[in-house]
């Protein structure tokens, strides 16, 4: 990494370890934005129907490649959607395919398109054992869904009731605690063994629940896990900017058409792929930790997954630009993070 008196920053090409590309007509937008400077991305499987088999992952992989801009070297890393019925054989097939890098746990009903998710992890013992054996990481949406648990407490309770027992039962299983949002999760990951890591989104670093609820309700800041109070935000910033190898970049960029967010019962998800690395750069700069951005964005994730680090680089410069109010998105429109406002870093060369 190089920094100089001119406000530019060159880092090894980053990867996105948690991304929703959606499918079909949406891919033109989403693949374009991410492929602009990310080398690879872990592609979430919560389509309708979900990507539950290696065969489905292979077909989805081809659709993504078909949407790639010419000359792009972007590589999608596929995942399977864990269900109560995922077999050990399916895990072996996934591993042997060479294109599947993780298996995603959505507690049933926890988030967008999670109805087919897991009702009880004990139903997944065979799959989890196979994953542990072949070194296939489990990626978790870490929230309980019990109706009596407050939405702001669901991550913390997930750690106590689900994640801790899971790690005791499968001590060799690689686990990525996705899109962590609380100080509790930071502490848990720090205290766990080396096979446990976490992704952190740009929105949980840049926003807290006041940004969603003060001065009017802002549906474009609604995501899951829901934004938390500022003390949690500060704990996430400390973790991300620490350089610690357990924490890495995962945008959770999750597009929803404008009319499905600006409505009486809006969808959860924030779109950040149009400006992800620039948004992270703002966070790191705000705490004087730009020198730690490369580890978070370009090294820690690849090292955890056991994949080679990218060899080429991208350069950012400190230059303000205005984000469009919306982008065309399939038959509709998409309101991105910071819509109509300015971002203070820009990728200038890749
Ligand atoms: N994060 C979100 O708010 N939404 C994601 C699902 C998820 O990652 O939980 C989506 O697919 O829309
Ligand atoms: Zn999730
Ligand atoms: Zn997600």
TrEMBL record:
SUPFAM superfamilies per record:
Metallo-dependent hydrolases
Report the residues modified as N6-carboxylysine. Answer: 104
EC main group: hydrolase
The record's Gene Ontology cellular component field reads: cytosol
Cofactor binding notes = Binds 2 Zn(2+) ions per subunit.
Ligand binding (Zn(2+) 2): 104, 141, 179
The cofactor named in the record is:
Zn(2+)
> What this chain does, per the record?
Catalyzes the reversible cyclization of carbamoyl aspartate to dihydroorotate.
Q: How does it assemble?
A: Homodimer.
* Designated name of the protein: Dihydroorotase
Q: Which gene is the coding source of this polypeptide chain? A: pyrC
